[in-house]
Amino acid sequence: MEATMLISSVKRVGKVDPRLYSSFIEHMGRAVYEGIYQPDHPSANESGFRQDVIHLVKELNIPMIRYPGGNFVSGFRWEDSIGPIASRPKRLDLAWRTIETNEVGIHEFYNWCQHVGAEINMAVNLGARGVDAARNLVEYCNFPKGTYWSDLRCSNGQESPFGIKTWCLGNEMDGPWQIGHKTAEEYGRLAAETAKAMKLVDDSIEVVLCGSSNRQMPTFGDWELTVLDQAYDQIDYLSLHQYYGNQKNDLSHYLARSLDMDRFISEVTAMCDTIKAKKHSKKQINLSFDEWNIWYHSAEQDEQAAPWQIAPPLLEDNYNFEDALLLGCLLITLLKHADRVKIACLAQLVNVIAPIRTETNGEAWRQTIYYPFMQAAMYGQGEVLSPQIHSANYATEDFEEVPYLESVAVINDKELVIFAVNRGEEEMNLTVRLSELSVAGVIDFSEMSGFDTKATNLPKSEQVKPSHSTNVKAEDGKINCLLKPLSWNVVRCY
Ligand code: AHR
Fold it and tell me: How is 13-58 classified by DSSP, letter by letter?
């Protein structure tokens, strides 16, 4: 199969915000306990954090981590998670029907983030709580000193403020499963007033308003328009959440899910701009895709989980090769919308629907989806160039034209990088023509291909991973490469 791409230096989508490669850790399952924190593990440091996990997280280059939920946050009392660990209360977590020990709280998580080089994106509880708890939390985290909450932070051992810049105004408030679920009108008003109070404490923060929990919600659309109408002046970003799965075991349909993400982003962008126009506002609301990933493998197993355990295994999806291919398509789609999607959080990071898994009595290991995410975070920095793509298409039940080639290019001072997925089961000869651009040669061509679509990684056996290919030539105005059937590819030229 032949495919061509035209990349022109004048067709720029926009600059990649490094926060596009953010992630998410929720107090649920084995994400925190037995994930990042396990004091009795041989690799634990003096604070109880697993250094094997820190090592793998650092390799992913993650700039920001959303915390502490998720559905968990709608029942969370943040005051339970500060002060001497021995006196912190154990609480019922009604979202996941488990017991939260509060052994890891805001201070401990902040310290862990310092180890991995990430900042926190903090969610406040707008389910069971409201304005008061949220503005107190901002004061506790960000106010220098000399007030009740800031002095309490100092007396708990943190003299300098945490300086948290990005805050989520609750989580999935449109979802009937959410503790304190609200109508769009109720949530929109509460979010506006909460954002106002939080920004009165610290006017340098940015806040994310909850959009729909997914594109299939019956209220999708109405929800966005209503909450934006209520809170437009107080907020900075609108959130999107979406998880994908191959429940039908139909590979062509599955690999086309990124077209659904593309449509979702365009629709939400249009809604932000509709309210901007309605309000005659000069302000642009950008998007935070603050939960995205593949989630379906663990569903059946989780139905059998007994309630009220501490850190039981939950949502531990074992990702296979086809999941890595879709993740690559989803990353390319996020990059294509870099002009409006400023934040995106791969949900989640450790054990719970995660690229990193831990063994209680063994080492941490990389799942298949780890690799495309790592390569995009590492090399997808700079300006996104919008390519003109010519490739054969196929049809699915919901998309008439799914191109076999999914691709985007990113340019920076040092290199031109092409990310490409071949969705087809045939080899693809890709010719990339460059306009008002030139390259002198290839730095590297990495490909992930040749695996059984259902192949997974295991502890001590990370067989599904990228390798180097020499099937590439780059000179002046042209790059030629061979994309293997069903492959994720990263071509870097200088
Ligand atoms: O990431 C797992 C869960 O998915 C989150 O708690 C919730 O926000 C979403 O429904």
Answer: EEEPPGGGGEEE--SSTTSTBTTTB-TTSTTB-TTSBBHHHHHHHH
